[in-house]
Structures are given as C-alpha cells and as structure tokens.
From TrEMBL:
Stretches with biased composition (Low complexity): 93-108
Protein name: Phage regulatory protein Rha (Phage_pRha)
Region described as Disordered: spans on this chain: 86-122
Residue spans of biased composition, Polar residues class: 109-122
InterPro entries in the record: Phage_regulatory_Rha (IPR014054)
C-alpha cells in the first residue's frame, strides 16, 4: 500500500503521512520502500513526489500512529485488496452453473463394482 493510499484512508495530507513514516522508519519500527512517482499539484503541474510503499503490518502501525479511529478503515481496505486477488471466478448464468456442477459430478463418479451373492457352483 502506498503512502498516498494511507493519506486517503485517514483523511490526512500526504506530506504529514510521509513525515510520520519517516519518523517511524528512523526508529526502525517500519521499513518502507521509497519510490519517486509523478503527481499533479493544485496548479495542474506534473511533479515528482517521493512516495512510500509499505506492507500490511507497517500500514497498521502507521495508521495507528496517525489516527487510531481510522484503523478499521485500513483493515477494510486490506480486505478489499485481498478479495480482489483471491476472488474465484463465478459462472454468470444458471446454464454455466449447471454445466459446471454436472461436469464436476461426472468427473468424481467412481465405477460401481458388484459382487454376486450366489454360492459358487462346483
């Protein structure tokens, strides 16, 4: 997650979020990756802005430092991101669902073996 996303979640200015991340990184509490990214300023000009990228754990620490009341929003955002990655494909029609169900049923059927219960002659 980027420092920009964190700023949006906690409704803080990006420069304030970056300052908090830098302070936490100085203490060794978080370990962000730093990237220069293009952004647009209030005048519509393109600028290069230092942006931090952090993992899930570090984002929780940063948000807890910035604004504890927004920690729940951060948890919700991470859950959304995880769902986007792990979302299984669901058939879009009843016919596809029925076909998928019948295919999975027929592929798991085992041949039936019957034994005769009549005594062997001879």
């Amino acid at each position: 997650m980027s420092s920009r996303e964190i700023a949006e979640v906690v409704e803080k200015r990006h420069d304030n979020v970056k300052r908090t991340i830098e302070m936490l990184a100085t203490h060794g509490t978080v370990h962000p990756q730093i990237e220069d990214e293009p952004s647009t300023d209030a005048m519509g000009r393109t600028r290069i802005t230092k942006t931090f990228h952090v993992n899930q754990r570090d984002s929780y620490v940063i948000v807890a430092q910035l604004s504890p009341e927004f920690t729940a929003r951060l948890v919700d955002r991470w859950q959304e991101l995880e769902q986007q990655v792990a979302q299984p494909k669901v058939p879009q029609s009843f016919a596809r669902t029925a076909k998928a169900a019948s295919t999975s049923t027929t592929s798991t059927r085992q041949p039936v073996v019957t034994r005769s219960t009549a005594p062997a002659s001879g």
